[in-house]
Each structure stands twice: as C-alpha cells, then as structure tokens.
Amino acid sequence: MGAARFAVPELEALALSAHEIAAVYSQPPRPAGRGRKERPTPVHERADELGLAIHTPLSLKGEVEQDTFRGLNLDVAVVAAYGLLLPSAILEAPRLGCVNLHPSLLPRWRGAAPAAHAILSGDAETGMTIMQMDEGLDTGPILAQKAVPMPPRATTASLEDEMAELGATMLLQVLDDLAKGAASSRPQDNSQATYASKFAKDHGRIDWGKTSAVLDRKVRALSSWPGAFFTLGGTTVKVLEAEPVSGAGIAGTLLDQDMTVACGDGALRLVTVQRAGKPRTDGASFLRGLRLEPGARLA
Predict the structure, then answer these.
(1) Contacts of 144 (CB under 8 A, 6+ apart)
(2) What is the pLDDT of residue 239?
C-alpha cells in the first residue's frame, strides 16, 4: 500500500523476495502536468510493469472496499507513503496486521513530512523506522529501527531516496521474522514525540534576517514542496539551490554579481533560481538579465 516514489524500492524488494504480493493498493490516477492528463502514481506504474493486481480506491472507509480487502486473506499489509487513512477494519484484516515504513527515528517526526523537518531542524542524525500500525498518527510499536548520520547537503528528495533503500532491506528482515513468529517490538516513548506537519505554500518564504545556515537548510528541506522563495518587484523567485558563504551586510542586500545575499548572520549564494513562469537559471545569469547591481535589496 503506497503511492509516492519513496515506496517503489520497497515494492521492488518484495517482488524479488520469496513473499507473495497478493495485491498493490495505491491512490487513484490524478491530473498532472500542463495537459492535466491523468497520471498514475509511481507505485501504480511500477506495479503495472511487474504485472501485479492494482487497486486504487478513493477511500477505504466503505464496506465494499473493506470487504474486498478482507477477501484477500492477507498475512500482512506493508504501508509506505500511501496517503490514505486506514480505518480499524483495514488495520485488523491481515492476520499479522499492518506494518509501516517511516523515514525518521520515531517518535521523533511523526507525521507527513519527516525528512523535510529533520533537515530543516538541523538534525545530526536521521534514520528509518518500521512499526506495527495502530489507529494513532505513527504511534505504533517499533519493529525495527536504524539510525544513520544526516548526509551532508541532503535535500528532502535525496534523503527520502536514501531512506527508501535502507527501508527495503530492513523490511525483508522484518517480514521474515514475522513469518517465523520471531518478531519483537517495543513501545514508543510518547514523551519524546515531535510532529512533522505538512507545509503550506507560505512556509517557503525566505526571511533574510535568519542566519545563512538556517536558510540553507530551508532551501534544501523545502526543495520538493513548497520551495523556498523571495519576491522581487512583485514577482516570486524560487531558490532551487543555494550555499552558505562568508559575507556581511544589511540582511537581504545583494553583495556581488554571483547573487550572494547578506543574511542575519553570514551570507547565502543563490546558485540556481527560477522566476515565476520562466526557466531555471544560475544566479549570475539571473542578475545580468535583470541588470541588478550589488546593493539592491531583495524582499
């Protein structure tokens, strides 16, 4: 049960294992791109390539969908980046319940955007957790967990890809243990829980008064969604890639022709930017096109 790219390595690992995939559940195809053509999820696409039965219900709350799910007579359901609420009838249907892959060191960063929050907060380490699902938000007992150092210069996409590969390896061991009746679990310490809420578009707005280190993490953490941005002459400019560098000045001031901007402490060089409705470009070319000179202020 999955939708996003994060869940594809888990699906591929299962397909190559001795375990039998009874069915794949994913979210329905939705309009995407400029043509608004309906596009299946990455999990749906890979399941089709593997010749697996695919189900794409809008919801699992109805009796018909729940009866269909129960009719699969599952031993276990594997859930990764699925995006749909699993009612108790679904959680209880498989003989061994449902297990979930979550890219954080639970109970830290429960919720929708754990990788992004770990980067944004400057966590020194991160990791993968596989838990037995219950009706809470990522509150179930932990079946397996592995911590790794936070990769340098990680973006949300690159970190999720790395955690997905780690999770695929961990998952097969967990399923083997469950099949043998040898799996063990431990409860989460709820007093240590933190929450990784979804981001709204305005969360990407850059405050040049923050330190360059904080803004660097913001650019990398929000690169998938909603993107870090500032405004220039009433136009939104996304910062796709940046790096902290030495420099000083009034926060928000352009310091040189390489598009280095002064921050509350230090400076940030805007490596790649994208003006609304325009192609992406390097910062220096962006400045030449607008004829901006050092000393200009960015909002």
Answers:
(1) 129, 130, 170, 173, 174
(2) 97
Q: What is the pLDDT of residues 191-246, one digit of tens each?
A: 999 999 999 999 999 999 999 999 999 999 999 999 999 998 888 999 999 999 99
Q: Note whether 270 and 218 are within 8 A (CB).
A: no
The Cβ-side half-sphere exposure at 200, using a 13 Å CA radius, reads: 1
Residue 7 · residue 81 · CB < 8 Å: yes
Domain ranges for the chain, please list them.
5-196, 201-290
Q: Are 286 and 295 in contact (CB under 8 A)?
A: no
What's domain 5-196's architecture? 3-Layer(aba) Sandwich (3.40)
The predicted-structure confidence for 257-283, as pLDDT tens digits, reads as follows 999 999 999 999 999 999 988 999 999
Q: Of the candidates 27, 32, 162, 22, which has an alpha carbon nearest to the alpha carbon of residue 78?
A: 22
At residue 291, the pLDDT reads 83
Find the mean pLDDT for residues 147-162: 97
Helix H or strand E encompassing 214: helix 212-221
Amino acid at 128: M
- Quote the CATH superfamily of domain 201-290: Formyl transferase, C-terminal domain (3.10.25.10)
The span from the CA of 299 to the CA of 288, in Å, is: 19
